[in-house]
Design brief:
Largest sheet: 2 strands, parallel
Order of helices and strands: HHHHHHHHHHHEHHHHEHHHH
Strand order of the largest sheet: 1-2
Strand content: under 5%
Distance between the termini: 43 Å
Low-confidence stretches: none
Number of helices: 19
Mean pLDDT: 93
Helix content: 55-70%
Length: 416
Amino acid sequence: MNAPIHPFLLQSDLAVLQNLLQDIKAQTASEWSGSGDHDHQSTLDKLGALKNEPTIFCSYDLKDLPLSKDEGPLAFLLQRYISWAQAIVRHPVDVVFLTHILLYFSTSVPSALYLYYHFSYVHGVCHWVMQLYYCGSFTLMLHNHIHNNGILAKQYAWFDHAWPYVLEPLMGHTWDSYFYHHVKHHHVEGNGPDDLSSTIRYQRDELLDFLCYVGRFLAFIWIELPIYFWRKNKPGLAAKAAVSELTSYGFIYFLARINFYPTLFVFILPLIQMRIGLMVGNFGQHALVDEIDPKSDFRSSITLIDVPSNRYCFNDGWHTSHHLHPRRHWRDHPTAFLKAKREYREGRALVFQNIDYLMMTYRILKKDYLYLADCIVPMGEQIGMSKQELADMLRTKTRRFSEEEIQEKFYKIGRN
């Protein structure tokens, strides 16, 4: 592993990464006991000490904020805000969610409204760029919302139910479609043959296959998802998925007929960029699929210890942990990973550092496997592999599965 350790990693990420690096050092020095527990408890203690620290802002850890009494009025305001926010969010550590909701309602909403009142191209472009900057953090906040039926305390359930309907279209989501596709579909199928966003039928390091993958989602998900639910004998979900998509499109069409240019920058461009972004991200999450056991969550998804995914997108890099336990709280992923480190190692899971999903997709499409090999944090038998061997191993995991292989691997229908 030759990738540098990013200085802006979350404290929890850094603790886990240092633990894994110690495993590598011990095994390389022939001091390996096989358990990987030489510093296990001390790392768990570090994570335990961070467990109840609230996250206020994505860009700052709690220790970096001016919270002591001798630091003036800003410290007083922050302390009052944290106390107030902790009474509103469901989990006291999730103050950052309320911070983001307030941010979006104080910037995106008035900006969008003003574009309809007085449109200018400069404002339109600036609004679009702002939404592009927001969309990653917003989507992963929404991701926590849809998996756990909300993020605010019960007494604020009405607002917890309402805010997505205001913010989703502004960020490029159609109403409720993320819930139906991600929770009711993707996590049920797990990148398998019936997953409409599955990567297994594509040669994942070929640009044409990638464009077909993204293009299919852009053009047909609105009809394919209801058809999927219908075929699975879930007519209620089929109807809801269809209504959510078509209602959203109808709303955007109605606004475009009234005032096209504001609608282009407020709704249409964010929708296109969000759909592309979702597929580029999902492609990176599931591009490396084990050729022997593609059904394994350890071998069909990856773990990233990086800044964009974990600091700014609420630990989205711990994707294998999320697939193992979709409702796990986002702050618990590093601890869960460390506790299950033996299973990750024996499952031949892939862990990377200092690379995000967008760059993962880009490097795979470039066939830059040596770069990816530098980013691997090897575990178990991977530790003894050379850089070229790691690169060759990664290359095998981007190969398209034939229909015969899919029948054999996923449905246990063997060859005659």
